[in-house]
Amino acid sequence: MFSAKQYLLAQSLEEAYVANQKRTATIVGGMCWLKMGKRQMQTLIDLSALGLDEIAVTKEGFSIGAMVSLRQLETHKELNQAFCNAFAKALSPIVGVQFRNCATVGGSVWGRFGFSDVITLLLALDAQVELYPSGVIALEDFIKMPYDNQILVRILIPHNSKPVAVQSHRNTATDFPVLVVAASVEQDGTLRMTVGARPQKAVAVPASLSLSDADLNNHLETALDKIPFEKNMRAGKEFRRHLASVLLKRAIAQLKEEQSHAN
Amino acid sequence: MNKYVSAPVRKRDAMALVTGQPVYTSDLLPAHCLTVKLLRSPHASALIKNIRTDSAKRVPGIACILTWEDVPNVRFTQAGQTYPEPSPYDRLILDRRIRCEGDPVAIVAGETPQAVDTALRLIKVEYEVLEPLLDFTKALDNPILVHPEEDFKALCDVGADNRRNLCCCGVNEEGDVESKLAECDIIIDQTYHTLSNSQAMMETFRTFTQLDAFGRLQVTSSTQVPFHVRRILSNALQIPKSRIRVIKPRIGGGFGAKQSAVSEVFPAIVTLKTGRPAAIEYTRAESMTNGSPRHEMQIHIRLGADKEGNIKAIDLHTLSNAGAYGEHGPTTVGLSGHKSIPLYGKAEAFRFSWDVVYTNTMSGGAYRGYGATQGIFALETAVNELAAKLNMDPCVLRSKNMVKEGQVMPAYYGEMLNSCTLDKCMEKAKAMIDWDNKYPAKQLENGHIRSVGVAMAMQGSAISNVDIGSAEIRLTDEGYYIMLIGATDMGTGCDTILGQIAADCLDCDLERITVQGVDTDQSPYDCGSYASSTTYLTGMAVIKTCEQIREKIVAQGASMLNCSVEEVEFDGKCVRSLLDQKEVTLQEIGYASFSGSYSVISACVSHTSPVSPPPFMVGIAEIDLDPDTGKVEIVDYAAAVDCGTVINTNLARVQTEGGLVQGIGMTLTENIQYSPKGNLWNNSFMQYKIPTRLDAGKLRVEFESSYEPTGPFGAKSIGELVINTPAPAITNAIYNATGLQFRSLPITSEQIAMGLLTKNKE
Amino acid sequence: MQIELTLNGRPCKAEVTPDTRLLEFVRQQGCASVKCGCETSNCGLCTVWLDEKPVLSCSVLAVRANGHKVTTLEGLQAQAAEFGAFLADEGAEQCGYCSPGFIMNVLAMEKELKQPTEEEIQQYLAGNLCRCSGYQGQLRAIHRYLNRKQEENHE
Q1: pLDDT at residue A262 greater than cutoff 80
Q2: Which domains does chain B have, with CATH numbers?
Q3: A3-49: CATH number
Q4: Chain A closest CA to C153's CA: distance in Å?
């Protein structure tokens, strides 16, 4: 069982940041992950009082506070309207409603877990991470960064809307994904595709492919061959490679359908 | 006319449970109860060279720390079985030798969980880590011995030999199986493999203990076998049984897990050493790593038939993995043959042989189905393979060969089958699913495949000539009854079901019968709730007890009316004189029995059965299979069950549905994986995936009741039977969808998708 | 440290350590209906409401309930009995150990979803594991419960 001696309800980001410089301090997100460990901590730092539990619609897109719960993301009307219901679809298989009422998007993104459905989707939406004090950084870069003592403040999505589709494969309905993919389309028809739970962290498919590409499937296969897949207790690497192709093709088909509806 | 039997009676404890009343073990802890936790070995095989507990003992609030030097050096078994237990006496409370990951190394008791956690971290153990024996197919005569000790002891002649890693072995046969096989046109010769499974009852193992006013050890535990726990504790602690009292409160599920005394010894020894109340609650990880899961089995079958599909001979060998200790090892293996082979009544010869071996993996126990599940998966899959080879509908093949009422079953201890509607179950299940239109499969527009698959199953009803059920009924002064039973309601509803039987036998309202669950000082002896025995066996004990107490009531009433017993009738409310219609009420009889001139009215009767009548069922799965991802969804599951007379229609239905979903989990998602060093990876609900409601699919249950002459109101058992069909039926449906024949569980989407890719390349 | 909250409609003031979880806290306060079935946030047995939202009390720090409203089944006895009767009439409570957490979530769902489809019901309750019932009887009970007003009108 984890233990902690002190609790700090931070009144400012600076206060949280200063407290977090100690090795024995830690930021509490949703607690879902933290409480499973056996860490003996000195101080738990809580960001609950900083108003970071809101999703704001901005001129540029969406600004999501670190303390927003997964359930809020899943059920947020504007967010789901803007992104083809992808948040509802991506998040609803995560454990259960009660879990998603606890787990925070900040915790999910900060963890940079390989199995993250959330990161896979956010990556396909070109999301950015606002850190305190260093500022805004692309999510793609953030997940490659080593863990440091900054505070994750917000997730920013720089789109007011974007066609996007997510697909995952799971051994049971609410398990971690065996593989999760997301694909979105830029204004010019270029696809942005991501693959998560490889089982390592999500990556973008390294190719510039267009939704209208006549030979899209073959080009996709070539690109997917460049992504490393591994085995873990949920599945082997060959199956993951196979699923990446199956699921991305399904996501692409969904995007095409989306497009034909739009037209 | 029965008022309660065969009705959907609500469970007597239901409203307490659904409103969250404090009725379970952990809700009842005495004040100032010590928290007990175990230091467990991270190694699968090791010797403890040295343990240092001095600094741990200095932690404030620590009451007691025990190591192998502090416990009796006498081996015992945790298996909850009738004495003499077939399971070898092969464990100590704490042992210097570590035989599996999580084997206990020290017992720590303290005032708070925090103090105990701190002390656990401060205990220093020096291990001599040994190479573990993990592969059960290589265990027999392996140079690594799991039980090299001299004081290993088997009370029964089960063929145990610890110098060979052998927990048990044997053979049972009738007819000349080799010559019959030689005559066969077709032989299916295959090996099947099922993994261990965790019962995953929602309440983990837990127990608290205290000394009563007489200095006796009072044990409150979440157990299916209170009377066996009393003996196990007596053996383990080396104190007389007369000093032990075991009480069972409401329990949060068992499914066989709590047929072993998994958690009881630890707080018990703390209470004996300290005189203090003590409680242990297993974590989910402990429950999964050091519980009492289903035995992993490898089953080799040779199934012979002629060209017309008449099954002539069955040869079945089971290799079972006992794991580190032998609890239920020698008995579960028996069901893998004895409760699969008899399904096929036409076979002219059979041989069933078995070996149960020790390894350094988690030790097995009792899990619903108890070996029959594994055997039926193997044999029913082999029969489906035979059907495919014959190009015959597997339902037709079964109808041709299935056992019928009135037959003697050589592979079932030579018992005569008195009640069986397996043939009707088959017709019913086929009709429910529309088999003839759906078999074998069809392609959907979205590329998915819909297919169906079938299996039959049987089980027993109690262990013949061994199990004992008892009931005691007392008439009280208001004319209501107290019924004491030793059978353990674990959520299954036996307190209600046995009450229903009594109410109908006594012609009274169910509300007039108080049913009291188990207290070994108060309840009449009952071996406990396992082996599908409660309704069948204790139910009969209730009937006999009711007959006896009726006689006593009638006698008392007649005496009060100055008549002979022949001159009165008892209608449940009054004893009435047939001569002049004068009557005395039950209440008056009750009051009279509590006054000096009459005697207190009570009856206690035990029952045992020379036979174990099998319940039967047919299960047909309809699945939706996505060939690209390999995902299998249960679209529909038709179950037709013959459990004899259904005593409680709701509870029997829910038992069936629950068993089916456990079987579905075993087939598709519940995986057991070890690290190369023998550490269990699937030790949580995060990694051991039992079905959620989204995975369960739609299930439909119908009853095709036979009438079992030796059962209460014609009833047989249902609890275990219902877990046995999903594995072979779904395996068959997957074959019918894909042509891929799986012989090993679980069948993952990966295996299906990759199997299809390979097959399509060929 | 001291926290003040509303527990089942009543003000509650208590000392807790920073690492106390809401699960242990409410049990210490006598709410024994709240059970623990796992260590990995997977089972749903410990479901309580925090400000009317169903959460896993095993994954919430007690200090985070400071100033908030916590509801357990002890505070919803009438509703629990009303829905529970439907569950009991299917025999679907079985061992009952998952019932309190399950019922907390059913009641939360009833407030949150208007006329949910079967799929929405199953999705909403997917985080409540049950090993006894096979879930079918629970679903039958929910349907009957949600349709109880219509059924009453028919009668």
Answers
A1: no
A2: 14-132+199-289 (3.90.1170.50), 469-607 (3.30.365.10)
A3: 3.30.43
A4: 32
Closest CB to C55 among A7, A41, A98? A98
Residue A260, pLDDT > 90, answer: no
Percent of chain B exceeding pLDDT 90 equals 98
Per residue in B65-86, pLDDT tens? 999 999 999 999 999 999 999 9
Which DSSP helix (H) or strand (E) runs through B409?
strand B408-409
Those residues with Cβ within 8 angstroms of residue C148's Cβ, 6 or more apart along the chain or in another chain: C86
pLDDT band at A38 (very low <50, low <70, confident <90, very high): confident
Q: Is A242 close to B754, i.e. CB distance below 8 A?
A: yes
Distance from CA of C128 to the nearest CA of B (A): 8
Nearest CB partner across the interface for B22, out of C32, C43, C81: C32
**What is the mean pLDDT for each group of 10 consecutive residues in chain C (155 residues)?**
97 96 97 97 98 97 97 98 98 98 98 96 98 98 92 65
Domain A52-157 architecture: 2-Layer Sandwich (3.30)
- CA C60 – CA C19 distance, rounded (Å): 10
What 3-state class would DSSP assign to B603?
Answer: strand
What is the average pLDDT score of chain B? Answer: 97
Interface test with A, best of B37, B629, B667, B758 (most A CBs within 10 A): B629
- ipTM of the shown complex: 0.98
3-state secondary structure B245-273: EEECCECCCCCCHHHECCCCHHHHHHHHH
Distance CA B243, CA B575 (A): 43
Q: Nearest Cα to B530, choosing from B198, B76, B81? A: B81
Show the CA angle centred on residue C43, arms to residues B365 and B489, nearest 5°: 50
Residue C42 has its nearest CB partner, among B17, B24, B685, at B685
Site from B750, B751, B760 to mutate, A interface, most A CB atoms within 10 angstroms: B750
Delimit the domains of chain A by residue range. 3-49, 52-157, 177-262
Q: Is the pLDDT of residue B384 over 60?
A: yes
Whether A5 sits inside 8 A of C18 (CB atoms) is yes
* Fold of the domain spanning C2-74: Ubiquitin-like (UB roll) (3.10.20)
pLDDT of A1 strictly over 80: no
The two domains C2-74 and C76-154 share their CATH topology (first three levels equal): no
C81 → closest Cβ in B15, B251, B659:
B15
Of the candidates A35, A95, A98, which has its C-beta nearest C21's C-beta? A35
Residue located via tokens 């409760």:
B339
Q: What's the gap in Å between the CA of B136 and the closest CA on chain A?
A: 21
Phi, psi of B350 (to 5 degrees): -145, 155
Question: Do C56 and A6 make contact, defined as CB atoms within 8 angstroms?
Answer: no
CA distance A239 to A232: 11
- C100–B22 C-beta distance less than 8 A: no
pLDDT category at B315 given cuts 50, 70, 90 is very high
Rounded distance between C-alpha atoms, residue B506 and residue B515, angstroms: 14
Residues A177-262, CATH architecture:
2-Layer Sandwich (3.30)
Contact A233 B748 (CB under 8 A): no
Q: Which residues of B touch A (CB under 8 A)?
A: 113-114, 117, 628-629, 631, 669, 671, 673, 681-682, 686-687, 689, 691-692, 694-695, 748-750, 753-754, 757
Domain boundaries, chain C: 2-74, 76-154
Q: pLDDT tier at A37 (50, 70, 90 boundaries)?
A: confident
CATH homologous superfamily of domain C76-154?
[2Fe-2S]-binding domain (1.10.150.120)
Q: What would the mean pLDDT of B77-99 be, rounded to a whole number? A: 98
Single out the residue of B328, B170, B190 nearest to residue B260, CA to CA: B328
| pLDDT of A2 | 85
Q: What is the pLDDT averaged over residues B682-706? A: 97
- With vertex at residue B8, the alpha carbon angle to CA B4 and CA B9, rounded to the nearest 5 degrees, is 60
- Would you state the pLDDT for residue B596? 85
Chain C residues with CB-CB distance to A92 below 8 A = 123
- Contact check, Cβ <8 Å, B750/A246: no
Q: How far is C94 from chain A (nearest CA, A)?
A: 22
